[in-house]
Amino acid sequence: MAHIIMIHGSWSGGWMWDRVIPILTAAGHSAEAPTLLGADPGGSRFPSRPLTAWADQIAARVREAKGPVVLVGQSRGGLVISEVAERVPERVGYLVYAGAFLLPDGASLGGTIQSAHPGAEPIFSVDTATGMTTVLPEALERIYSKTPVRWIEYARAMQCLEPLAAITTPISVSDERFGSVPRAYIEATEDQVMPLSLQRAMQARLPCNPVFAIESDHVLPSSAPEELARHLVEIANRVDHPARLRRPVL
Questions:
Q1: H or E segment and range at residue 56
Q2: Which domain holds residue 190?
Q3: Domain count of the chain?
Q4: Which end of the chain is more exposed for a tag (fewer CB within 10 A), N or C?
């Protein structure tokens, strides 16, 4: 049995995985979806160095887990799981990027989007006084373009702020540690925020195996929870049988 830890994307929380967890547990794996520090509904303060603090937070959960761990990241959650792998590579059986940012050392989320799509329509606004970002209301239709309306409204009600530092801070990983952990990618083929071309460009830089494709919008847990869970179970089953693992080419 693998333990699956799922990390949410920006302006979100652990709640985004609510429809995925029961499917994983029914398949015999344990699963959790922690909310990152500061993103809880109670409004606790965000850490001054969010990516560092979030990676430390999840690395502590990985150390406490019993059995092999599969780390799953959605969107910005990809940066978090990469940095967790840098901290505890020996405890992570697989990294899974579910429509997530898979970045090399020194790259940032904002810089990656800017380079790939310099004229892209913004999806968030920035409060320069506080350094916090929030989703533009009109952007929700692009983010959740294939998600049922009732879940879009739920996501709208649950939206939280996000520090701009989480978008601009470069990731810090190495080939020796992060690069030693097997990686999988689950593509969101209808993503209007992080197009398939960008998802594949990131994989070309940092190859993954296996790779799956789902006809989903940017948020796979809300638009395709059953298919996403099925692929996660397949990957978790690989971790249960280490002989099946195949290391990625660095």
A1: helix 50-64
A2: 3-244
A3: 1
A4: C
